[in-house]
Amino acid sequence: MKRKVGIFIFIIVIIFILSILVIMFINSKIAPRIMDYSISEMKRVASTIINRSIRDDTLTQDDLDKMFIVSKSREEEVISITLDSGIVNKITNRISDACEDNLRLVEEHQFSELKKKFNIGEEYFLVPSGILFNNSVISSIGPKIPVSLKMIGNVTSGIVTDVKEYGINNSLITVSVEIKVELMVILPFSTDYVNITNYVPIAIKLIQGKVPQVYGGSLLS
User: Fold this and answer.
1) Alpha-carbon span 3 to 17, nearest angstrom
2) Which range of residues forms the domain containing residue 198?
3) The whole model's pTM is what?
4) Structural domain count of the chain
5) Is residue 29 part of a domain?
6) Per-residue pLDDT reduced to its tens digit, 151-172
């Protein structure tokens, strides 16, 4: 009887040690590779959602037209261009809200809405374990590992301007929205964080004459 108890305890100890070794192997070898792949995929998904969140319902042509305040000299030469802070705030707030609403669809696993709005299906959130073998033939096979995405804080957005010479004595002003968000990528065995910054052009204005000063967003000349 004592011999059987001793064998049983020995087997339990061996199983426990093997379990620890397996967990250590997963954490050191397998988990980082799957996490790197998951982060890459989630960045692609989030960037797609952010870029496509800027639609007609967040940007109106009237707002874009009123955003530029142009100052001219007596000779009708453009001296400076100011971005209307009220219009800019309205635009950035709408964009931030739209991005947050759509990223919430990912957090809440509303895959039917994601498919309809962004053509992003549930398969984007299932990582094939075959990627561990670094072989294109078998990378898509094997058990699927679920991955989730969670926003950390709020989406923030701001305006960035870029002025370039265009043709002869002309300048081209591009206004872009800078969108930033921090995300948590969650796997069954680990989590990691990723910061995403996207720049999405929303308006372009051609100015005839010398390159003007632009105020609002980033100051460029």
Assistant:
1) 21
2) 35-215
3) 0.72
4) 1
5) no
6) 998 899 888 888 887 766 777 8
pLDDT category at 218 given cuts 50, 70, 90 is very low
Cα four-point dihedral sign 106, 111, 116, 118: positive
* Residue 80 belongs to a domain: yes
Within 10 angstroms of residue 40's Cβ, the number of other Cβ atoms is 12
For residue range 51-67, what is the model confidence (pLDDT) as tens digits? 888 875 677 778 888 88
Q: Is residue 43 part of a domain?
A: yes
Alpha helices in 54-185 (DSSP H): 61-67, 85-107, 111-118
Extract the tokens encoding 1: 């009887």
CA–CA dist 32, 12 (Å, integer): 29
Spatial distance between the Cα atoms of 53 and 179, rounded to a whole number of angstroms: 11
The identity of residue 168, as a single letter, is: I
